[in-house]
Amino acid sequence: xxxxxxxxxxxxxxxxxxxxxxxxxxxxxxxxxxxxxxxxxxxxxxxxxxxxxxxxxxxxxxxxxxxxxxxxxxxxxxxxxxxxxxxxxxxxxxxxxxxxxxxxxxxxxxxxxxxxxxxxxxxxxxxxxxxxxxxxxxxxxxxxxxxxxxxxxxxxxxxxxxxxxxxxxxxxxxxxxxxxxxxxxxxxx
Length: 189
Known about the structure:
- By secondary structure, this protein is mainly β.
- It has a single domain (45-186), classed as Jelly Rolls, CATH 2.60.120.
- It is 5% helix and 41% strand.
- The chain is built from two helices and 15 strands.
- The chain has helices at 32-37, 170-173; strands spanning 2-5, 12-15, 18-21, 24-27, 46-52, 58-64, 72-78, 80-87, 89-90, 98-104, 110-113, 117-123, 128-134, 143-145, 185-186.
- A hairpin with a 2-residue loop joins strand 3 (18-21) and strand 4.
- The model has no long low-confidence stretch (mean pLDDT 95).
């Protein structure tokens, strides 16, 4: 297992060894001891899965406010996505900055996001399945969101969205800007 650091402290791309033969392949997607060796001591308590029927579906940017915030380990098990993390920890040297990673069934990469990140993804294929491991349980009253196209963040969703409207939920269409969001995260060194 390998950890690739990103420009945002605590956000990592995870690559796992994949062993294949004439039958197919096998890989570990989570091992607490190996993650500890990589410097990730998160204990996950909830797994989620989403399905998006059409290419161009955009989910996000989502977070849960403290004390119900969530660290996440995400991966795409069918299809392909652009996955995005936005640092919303006040006082962070990368506050309002974003990093992205292409996740696909083919590349088998995972993306680790610590608490204090807004998260979203854009499907690049039809029939996309996406899985999340979370370190805190879902708490509806603590949900928060930020507009996917907030100009102060300036996420480059790629050429897929040039001249197109993404497929969005009403909640994501109505999401506030970063400036207006009600996140309550504070950066800790």
